[in-house]
Design a protein that fits this description.
Layout: E1 39-44, E2 47-52, H1 57-63, E3 89-90, E4 109-111, H2 115-130, H3 139-143, H4 150-158, H5 162-170, H6 176-182, H7 202-215, E5 233-237, H8 241-252, E6 256-260, H9 269-272, H10 281-288, H11 290-293, E7 297-299, H12 310-315, E8 320-323, E9 329-330, E10 343-345, H13 346-355, E11 366-370, H14 374-385, E12 390-395, H15 405-413, E13 417-420, E14 422-429, E15 435-448, E16 454-458, E17 464-467, E18 470-473, E19 477-478, H16 489-492, E20 517-519, H17 522-525, H18 530-548, H19 556-563, E21 587-588, H20 591-595, E22 602-604, H21 607-615, H22 629-636, E23 664-665, E24 671-674, H23 683-692, E25 697-700, E26 707-710, H24 726-730, E27 736-738, H25 758-762, E28 769-770, E29 774-775, H26 785-795
Parallel strand pairs: 1-4, 5-6, 5-8, 6-7, 8-20, 10-18, 11-12, 11-18, 12-13
Antiparallel strand pairs: 1-2, 3-4, 9-19, 14-15, 15-16, 15-17, 21-22, 23-24, 24-27, 25-26, 28-29
Helix pairs in contact: 4-5, 4-7, 4-21, 5-7, 6-7, 7-21, 8-18, 13-14, 18-19
The structure holds flavin-adenine dinucleotide.
Length: 799
């Protein structure tokens, strides 16, 4: 396989003849193509079909409804052959010709999809991606399991529009005030602002706008209007974040939801796990209540397996059932003395604390907590607030492996001691079997596991004892699925439990082995985070909605929509702006004060802090999101060049080009140009030259440095551009975009108008019309339209 076209990168060259795979001359585009009327017979994908002489393979396939991907083909223009992803196989040819530039001939045998063709298309896409310095979704948004529009809501926040910001958030996550308190914020670790100074406080920012909305005595903003009742009924088991999210979005879509909950109150681990000082329950209820405000019904004290069975729900005629019962079965440590007098179940301890049930007397006790997750830290800080004399937390890995490192620091500030890289060997007891301490062994961190975390390995001979009165084991939990045994055979047979003890559901459609039963959240993922439960809950609600609307969830197209496929991304060139403005920090109670009560310890932003913090966002979102052909091809061919800028080199991958990191040109009033996204397809240059006649663009530079831009890279203002917007319209990837417009009034001097109609021709938005009577459909709004019509009558009488 060779590079061709002389430029070596497969992109267009100065002569407009790009190319990548195979000998270029074999399939140089035909120019011009004039289809004739004589019918010829060809075989495409094993089927004999009739096509017209003079057609290219691409044209013939399009007429026959066969999809061949292309980024540079513009039906109104002669084929150009610049992108080269439209390759096909033709019997008798060694290379894979481009279909837009190859004319069909009698008896031709063509294959549009084969392993070889797919591989070649992938290669071309990889090459394009190697110099496509752009994200589809900004990295923060991509890393959030809910894919919430972070730049969008931050923009609204920066304008002080809290309601709009909250509405944007609720499109993807219905509980932004709750997540604003408890989310570990994976988005922030990928914020590009970090390359300038410090990452945006994304979580604290959505806490602020969502809180402002909860404060006002008005209905919560809806992401979109609630749809009318479909008559469908959905049973949801579990009112944790997963179940409540499903109920929220299904209610919005017009399906009625009944939420069955084992506990007396809503919220799952949000209520019975996460302590009050982090998530005040009154505030939490205000936000969760939006689900009931939308019409869902809460059915408390209803435990699946005890008070009802899935078979009952089927019998009662529910159209779909969602299981979101979380993880409530604590993992056992498997060490001697685990159940001795003085050992306490961490989850039960928190459950009782949050319900106000008396907990084992911790006042004055020396407590050892084993584990490093949310539960361990919450138990630590709760024990301190309950008056423990000393609390030691022992974790087998490092601080950086903890899901909530900030909280670990706060626990230390409040007086806890942390021992890292040690695991329990046995619980030490006295003659009466009462706990007196825990024996630990030091750990050495070995090779990384599949999640990239280094595996702890025991170091024999390093044992030590920590003396204590109470031990809380908080080493994780798994789903409690004993209810499955109480179901009839036909249901039991359709529910699969994984090796890890989780309820199995399809990763895209969240469907279990029974078509109308779905599952998501911790019960399916294992103990994770609120934001993951909400993200999967939202996707599950889409799948359920599709199913309820009669779509076949096994249809690949439907699965694709439901699963929202995402390409992975290049790391783009570092942002080098030197603006320095560190993030705003929320106020909080001092360590001493917070140790003595369960009040919420973080105060939230002030109005000015929230606006200022949001204004720091670099808004690194792509304007073409939702209509980018390259992204669609990347999803279809499952390819991006997924490596960081430092790793990118021609030695590593010969198809990798030089990453140029071109900038943006924002000098033109209507057209925004972002060269970093340009894939050198040349469509803009062709349209501008052959249709508009302005010829503002051309291929500049050679080889890897070729780029479609203006001569000498000047601003579009210095070209014959007529601002028609056709270049932006044809651009397949958002390298050329119509700029967001700020409404202005233009002064029109009607006395000078010669009614040439050029403005009407050029207007990209059809704001001006040439009708039988030439007229301005809109001009200075305060002037009566009649004047213009009168003038046109006078100057240019109509038929
Ligand atoms: P859950 O929240 O567990 O909800 C499941 C619901 O199902 C519950 O209401 C339960 O009562 C109900 N249920 C269970 N069995 C039945 C049954 N048989 N019949 C009827 N109803 C049933 N994540 C974070 O992101 N940030 C944090 O700060 C954080 N802190 C945490 C602290 C603790 C102590 C714990 C334990 C977890 C924490 N997590 C945190 C994890 C987070 O709470 C969970 O990942 C999340 O709540 C999972 O949501 P879910 O809806 O899948 O399940």
């Amino acid at each position: 396989m060779t590079f061709a076209g002389g430029n070596g990168n497969g992109k267009g060259s100065g002569s407009g003849t790009g190319g990548m795979i195979g000998a270029f001359e074999d399939y140089a585009p035909i120019w011009p193509v004039v289809p004739g009327t004589r019918k010829i017979t060809v075989t495409i994908n094993g089927r004999q079909v009739q096509a017209e002489e003079g057609q290219t393979i691409l044209q013939a396939c399009r007429v026959l409804g066969l999809e061949i991907p292309t980024l540079c083909y513009e039906p109104k223009l002669s084929p150009y052959g610049a992108c080269r992803i439209c390759v096909v196989e033709v019997e008798g040819q060694d290379s894979t010709p481009i279909s837009c530039g190859t004319q069909i001939t009698e008896g031709m045998v063509i294959t549009t999809h084969s392993e070889r063709v797919i591989e070649n298309r992938r290669l071309v896409l990889e090459l394009i991606f190697s110099d496509h310095d752009a994200y589809c979704l900004p990295p923060c948004q991509f890393k959030c399991p809910t894919r919430v529009d972070i730049p969008g809501y931050l923009k609204a926040n920066s304008e002080g529009n809290w309601e709009e910001a909250t509405r944007i958030l609720k499109r993807s996550l219905p509980f932004p005030a709750i997540l604003g308190r408890v989310c570990p914020a994976p988005c922030e670790t990928h914020c590009r602002r970090e390359e300038v100074d410090t990452a945006i406080a994304i979580r604290d920012s959505h806490r602020y706008c969502a809180d402002r909305v909860l404060e006002v005595d008005a209905p919560a903003p809806l992401p979109w209007p609630k749809e009318s009742d479909t008559g469908r009924r959905v049973a949801i088991v579990g009112s944790g974040p997963a179940g409540m999210t499903v109920a929220y979005y299904l209610q919005l879509r017009g399906h009625h939801c009944d939420v069955f909950e084992a506990d007396p109150e809503q919220g799952g681990m949000l209520r019975y796990g996460i302590p009050e000082y982090r998530l005040p329950k009154g505030w939490m209820d205000r936000e969760l209540n939006h689900v009931w405000e939308l019409g869902a019904t809460f059915k408390p004290n209803m435990r699946l397996g005890r008070d009802f069975h899935l078979a009952d729900l089927v019998e009662q005629g529910y159209d779909a059932i969602f299981i979101g019962t979380g993880c409530y079965k604590p993992n056992e440590m498997g060490i001697p003395g685990e159940f001795a007098d003085g050992t306490v179940n961490a989850l039960e301890n928190l459950y009782n604390s949050t319900r106000g049930v008396p907990v084992p007397a911790l006042r004055g006790a020396r407590v050892v907590i084993i584990g490093g997750g949310f539960t361990a830290i919450d138990c630590t800080r709760t024990s301190l607030r309950q008056g423990a004399k000393a609390v030691t937390i022992v974790y087998r890995r490092d601080l950086k492996d903890m899901p909530s490192q900030d909280e670990a620091h706060e626990a230390i500030e409040e007086g806890a001691t942390v021992i890292f890289q040690a695991a329990p060997v046995r619980i030490v007891t006295d003659a009466k079997g009462k706990v007196t301490g825990v024996e630990f062994q030091k750990m050495h961190l070995g090779a990384a596991d599949e999640k990239g975390r280094r595996r702890p390995e025991p170091m024999p001979g390093t044992e030590f004892i920590v003396e204590c009165d109470t031990v809380l084991g908080a080493i994780g939990q798994g789903p409690e699925l004993s209810w499955i045994d109480s179901e009839p055979d036909e249901i039991r047979a359709g529910l699969e439990v994984s090796r890890q003890g989780r309820l199995v559901a399809d990763a895209n459609t969240f469907r279990t082995g029974i078509p109308k039963i779905f599952a998501a959240g911790d019960v399916n993922l294992g103990a994770t985070t609120v934001v993951e439960a909400i993200g999967d809950g939202r996707r599950a609600s889409y799948a359920i909605d599709y199913w309820l609307r009669g779509h076949d969830l096994d249809d690949p197209q439907v699965r694709r929509v439901v699963s929202e496929p995402q390409p992975s991304f290049l790391t783009i060139v570092p942002f080098t702006d030197d603006v320095k403005e560190p993030k705003a920090v929320m106020g909080k109670l001092g360590a001493e004060e917070r140790r003595s009560n369960f009040e919420e310890f973080e105060h939230g932003y002030t109005h000015d802090q929230a606006m200022g913090e949001a204004a720091r966002c670099l808004q690194c979102t792509c304007e073409a999101i939702g209509h980018c052909d390259l992204r669609e091809a990347a999803i279809e061919y499952e390819t991006t060049l997924n490596m960081t800028i430092d790793e990118r080199s021609i030695q590593d991958n010969p198809y990798v080009g030089i990453n140029h990191g071109y900038g943006r040109d924002e000098t033109h009033s209507f057209i925004l140009r972002d060269y970093s996204r340009c894939i050198d397809c040349g469509r803009c240059a062709q349209v501008c030259k052959d249709i508009v006649g302005a010829g503002c663009y051309d291929f500049i530079g050679k080889g890897f440095d070729s780029l479609v831009t203006t001569a000498d890279y000047v601003s579009l203002n210095e070209t014959p551009c007529v601002s028609c917007g056709r270049c932006a319209e044809t651009c397949p990837v958002g390298a050329l975009m119509p700029r967001p417009r700020i409404l202005e009034t233009y002064q029109l001097d009607v006395s000078r108008c010669i009614f040439c109609g050029i403005c009407a021709d050029a207007c990209p938005y059809d704001a001006l019309r040439c009708g039988p009577e030439f007229e301005f459909s809109e001009y200075q709004r305060d002037l009566p339209m009649l004047d213009i019509l009168e003038m046109s009558d006078r100057e240019r009488p109509t038929r």
